[in-house]
Amino acid sequence: SGASKGDIREKVWDYLEASGLAEFPRPVHHRIPNFKGSHQACCSVKELDVFNRASEIKVDPDKPLEGVRLAALQARKTLLVPTPRLRSGLFNKIVPPPGATKEILRVCATSQGIKEYSVPVGLDGKARVDLVVVGSVAVSEKGWRIGKGEGYADMEYAMMVSMGAVTEDTPVITIVHDCQVVDIPEELLGDHDLTVDYILTPTRTIKTNCERPKPQGIIWHKANQPLYEMLGKIPILKSLRYKEKQAGKDVTLRDERPDLANANKSAALNEEAVAGNTGPQASVGSAQIGQQCVESDSLSPRLEGSGTITTVYVGNIPPNIRVSELKCALREFHATPLRVNWQGAQHRAFLDYKDKATAESAVSSLKGLSLGGNTLRVELAKSQRNQG
C-alpha cells in the first residue's frame, strides 16, 4: 500500500514497454497505452448487450480504442469522439461518406479519419449518449480507473452530465491489456474520478458491478488545479459555466470564495460576477442575459492608437438575441472588442479588436459559445480593414 496514482501509472507503462506488449505510438509513457491484442479486446464489444442496444456512442480518440470506433461505424451507430484536448467544441461526430467501403470505415476510425470525416457537435447539440468508452492506464476489477493524469476523461464525462447527454445509468466501458487490471486502493479515488462498468481485455470481459456513483457534473466549488488550467484552455468549459450560472447554479470556484481567498489567484479566474446578477434567475435562457448586464453605451472609451484593427466575424446569431446580450457574453469571456458592428437582421456581427493577437485570442475564447441555443460561428473576418 501507500502507492500513488503516479506510481501505479509508471509501473504499468514500464511493464508494457519491458515485456514487449507496447504498440505504436511509443513509448507508451504519458499516454493511454496501445498494446498487443487491443483489436481483439475491442472486438468483444460486439458481444455486449449495452453495445448492441446503444445508438449513440462516445469513444475517446486514443489508438487502442480504434477497434471500438470501427465496430460502432460498421454497426451504423452514431459515433462521437471528443475533440483532442477539447480545444474546439466538445465532440466530433464521425460521418462516413455515403456508401463508404470497409477500407474507408477503417480510415474513419483512425485519428486521421477523425480529422477528415467529422462535424463538430456543440454544447447545445442534442447529444444523448447511450454508451461511453474510455481509455485507461490502469483499472481494477471493482471498476476504479486511473487515466493518464490530465483529467480529460473525467472532465468530458462531467461535462456530458452537465449537458444532460449522459445519466448515472449510462454504461462506461474501458479497453485494456490484462496486465493493466490491477488493485487500486480506494483512498486514491476522488469524487470527480470516473468509474467503469465493463473492462474488456484480449482474454476476458469483466463486469465490475461498480457500486461507486459516477461524477455528478462539474464540481465547481472544489475545482482542482486541472480545472483552473482547463478553464483557460477549453472554451466550451467557460460556455458551460456561463450556462450553469444563467440557470442559477452556484458556479463559484473554490479560490473565488472570500473565506478561501488565495493570494496567487490567476487573473483569468478573477472574473467579477456579472453586475446586477443578485437574485436567482427566474427563468433560464438567453433572454435573461441582457437583464443581468449593466449596459454601458460604448464598450470601449475610444479607439486606441493607430494599430491595425483586426475584425472578427460572429455568425449564426439567433433572431431573438439583442446586441446587449452579445456584449454581455463578450465581457464574461474577456473578449471585449473596441466596437461592435451589429447586423442582427443578417444574424451576424463584426467585432473590431486593436490588433491581430487580441482578435485571435478572442476567437479562441469564444469558440463553442452558444447563445439562445445556437453555437455561434466565430472566425477572423475575411476582409481586414486598415485603420488610422
Automatic annotation (TrEMBL):
Highest taxon listed in the record's lineage: Eukaryota
Question: Which positions fall inside the RRM domain?
Answer: 310-383
List membrane-spanning regions: none
Q: Which UniProt keywords apply?
A: RNA-binding
Q: Mind listing the GO molecular function terms for this protein?
A: RNA binding
Q: Name one GO cellular component term.
A: cytoplasm
- InterPro entries xref list: FTHF_cligase (IPR002698), FTHF_cligase-like_sf (IPR024185), MTHFSD_RRM (IPR034359), NagB/RpiA_transferase-like (IPR037171), Nucleotide-bd_a/b_plait_sf (IPR012677), RBD_domain_sf (IPR035979), RRM_dom (IPR000504)
Question: What PANTHER family is this protein classified in?
Answer: 5-FORMYLTETRAHYDROFOLATE CYCLO-LIGASE-RELATED, METHENYLTETRAHYDROFOLATE SYNTHASE DOMAIN-CONTAINING PROTEIN
Recorded protein name is: Methenyltetrahydrofolate synthase domain-containing protein
